[in-house]
Design a protein that fits this description.
The chain is an all-alpha fold and 248 residues long. It has ten helices and no strands.
């Protein structure tokens, strides 16, 4: 069975054997056909959760970098644009933004947008404001001498950022970027309100048919716990690899 690593956790919580009283762990019992079907139904939402989160984080990183650069300008107008964007986007609750993008944007822009791309767009816009601040802080943390060294070898602004400044800044902000990915994975659950078939939506649908919210939402908690622990471990591994490459 796919995702077999979840079975020990299910057993740890007593899901396979406890059916007394008002509990009904049989609905997610991996040793019964109905329990296996329910578990697979829940786990099938993992693909959409990952696709939604990864796509949104990639877009938000690019958008955040583009928003951060004006904040580093010496002129006042670009800095004002950066500050207005960051403050406005951060002030809007992400759930409200998801609902507005899905229901409001098609009317405002006269376009058709799917549930998936509405979720991606809302999550990316919301996260881009935080990414912009992370990039701004990371770029400003690079020593001024690095900028001067880039100028001394006649590098233009784009080449300076690409080859000298950004590689150093990304190494410094990698933990923060990893935290934002974890945040995105958790916030992707809010897209269930517009019908996205991710983990939380699947759990809600199963609750409606099985009437066992405690048992089903416990499995949902375990799913997110395992997923986020794996992502966090991957980010830490990447940090160690990048740190080791600096020491060579």
């Amino acid at each position: 069975m796919r995702f077999a690593y979840l079975l020990p956790l299910l057993a740890l919580f007593g899901l396979s054997g406890c059916s007394s009283g008002s509990w009904g762990w049989y609905v997610v019992n991996p040793t019964t056909p109905s329990g296996q079907r329910n578990l697979m139904f829940l786990l099938d939402g993992l693909y959409y959760t990952l696709a939604l989160s990864v796509t949104a984080i990639l877009i938000s990183v690019i958008l955040g970098l583009l928003v951060a650069l004006p904040g580093l300008a010496t002129q006042r107008p670009p800095r004002i644009i950066n500050r207005v964007y960051v403050e406005v986007v951060r002030a809007v609750p992400i759930l409200v933004l998801i609902l507005w993008v899905y229901y409001g944007l098609p009317q405002v822009a006269d376009i058709s947008i799917s549930v998936f791309w509405a979720g991606v767009l809302a999550l990316a816009i919301s996260d881009s404001a935080f990414q912009a601040e992370i990039f701004r802080a990371g770029i400003q943390s690079v020593d001024r001498g690095q900028h001067e060294a880039a100028h001394s070898i006649s590098l233009g602004y784009v080449d300076k950022m690409r080859f000298v400044i950004l590689p150093q800044a990304i190494k410094r902000i990698l933990p923060a970027l990893g935290n934002q990915l974890v945040y995105m994975l958790k916030m992707s659950s809010l897209v269930s309100v517009i019908g996205m078939e991710e983990l939380t939506r699947r759990a809600n649908e199963l609750v409606v048919t099985e009437y066992r919210p405690l048992e089903i939402y416990t499995v949902l908690v375990i799913e997110y716990l395992v997923l986020i622990l794996l992502v966090s471990a991957a980010v830490r591994w990447l940090e160690r690899r990048m740190g080791a490459s600096d020491q060579r």
